[in-house]
Amino acid sequence: REENARMEGKKEPKKVTQFEMEQQKLKARKAAQLAQSGDKRVVSEKDQEALLLKENTNENQDVDATGVDGVMKRLEQVDITGKEAEDMNPERRTKAAHAAFDKKMMPILKADNPGLKRTQLKEMCWKLWNKS
């Protein structure tokens, strides 16, 4: 019989257990009760906007960082008492700030002093950096 069904391209009906029949009846009863009660669970646009625009109360004002890496970095900067921890690598930030200043000032100095060599321009830039 199965071979004939396969050859004809027809599927044999799936057997349904007693448990599955009870589950189907239960679902049908619940659907009928919902239809009778008229409970559609529809949220009005006003309520939906209120839910979406609700302020995030989980936000901690003490740590201003986004993402896991940023939070971990920020927490490393704060010690147990909540005070700012000692800066671990101040020379890195100074070096980066000087590089940015150098990048900004070199074209200006080069335009003002076109005959100077690069090392002389760097020296002038260093003097300006120390003045500021």
Feature tags:
single chain; about 130 residues; mainly alpha; 6 helices; elongated
> Uncertain spans, ≥5 residues at pLDDT below 50?
none
Gyration radius from CA atoms, angstroms = 36 Å
Question: Helix content range of the residues, please?
Answer: 55-70%
User: What does the average pLDDT come to?
Assistant: 77
Structural class: mainly alpha
Largest sheet: none
Distance between the termini: 95 Å
- Helix/strand order: HHHHHH
Strand content: under 5%
Question: Shape, please?
Answer: elongated
Number of strands: 0
Determine the number of helices (DSSP H or I, runs of at least 4 residues).
Answer: 6
Describe this structure in words.
This protein is an all-alpha fold and 132 residues long. 63% of the residues lie in helices and 0% in strands.
Condensed summary:
The protein has helices at residues 2-8, 18-37, 45-52, 67-77, 90-112, 118-131. The protein is mostly helical and 132 residues long.
What order do the helices and strands come in, and which of them pair?
Elements lengths: L1 H7 L9 H20 L7 H8 L14 H11 L12 H23 L5 H14 L1
Helix pairs in contact: 5-6
